[in-house]
Amino acid sequence: MLYPSMLDTPLEVRFWWLIPLGLVWRIIEDRLDRKRIREHVTQSGGRVLSICWSPFGLGWFREASDRIYEVTYETKAGKLVTVNCMTSITAGVYWASDKVPDGFPEDEPSAAECLSCGHRIAAKETRCPKCGWSYETPSADRSGTQS
């Protein structure tokens, strides 16, 4: 036999492929994040000028699974704004500061924190993507019993 048995191969060699796989996954995440951020800004009428990954940007200690980007965009009114935002596949896009950036409606709902596990719940979602907890109570039917 030309190939040694997998059991004879050192552990480091058996898992060498994990490094390139991790890099490919990070590149895919980055492209999806940038697309999500660009869509979020353009929905408010803004135009994205730059999106830079900022691993230690404002809010880096909050959520380990969310990635942070520094976004520079132009509002409908022509004002240039630079702000940090966080994003992930499950949480959508949310701004790292407490104040809504220029060009976005003030009454826009923001992400909420799950009271059960602390994970971020996207503004349009009612259930936590991590644990399933919901802040909505079950609705009562006509007989007055809970469903």
> How many whole angstroms does the radius of gyration measure?
21 Å
Overall pLDDT:
77
Q: Which percent bin holds the helix content?
A: 10-25%
Supply the helix-strand structural class: alpha+beta
- State the order of secondary-structure elements, H for helix, E for strand: HHEEEEEE
Largest sheet: 4 strands, antiparallel
| Total number of beta strands | 6
What's the structural blueprint in terms of helices and strands?
Blueprint: H1 11-14, H2 18-43, E1 47-53, E2 67-74, E3 80-88, E4 92-95, E5 112-113, E6 120-121
Antiparallel strand pairs: 1-2, 2-3, 3-4, 5-6
Summarize the structure.
This protein is an alpha+beta fold. Helices cover 20% and strands 22% of the residues.
Description:
The chain is α+β, with helices and mostly antiparallel strands. It has a domain at 17-104. Helices cover 20% and strands 22% of the residues. The chain has two helices and six strands. The strands form two sheets. Strands 1-2-3-4 form a four-stranded antiparallel beta sheet. Strands 5-6 form a two-stranded antiparallel ribbon. A hairpin with a 6-residue loop joins strand 5 and strand 6. The chain is globular and about 65 Å long. Residues 140-144 have low confidence and may be disordered.
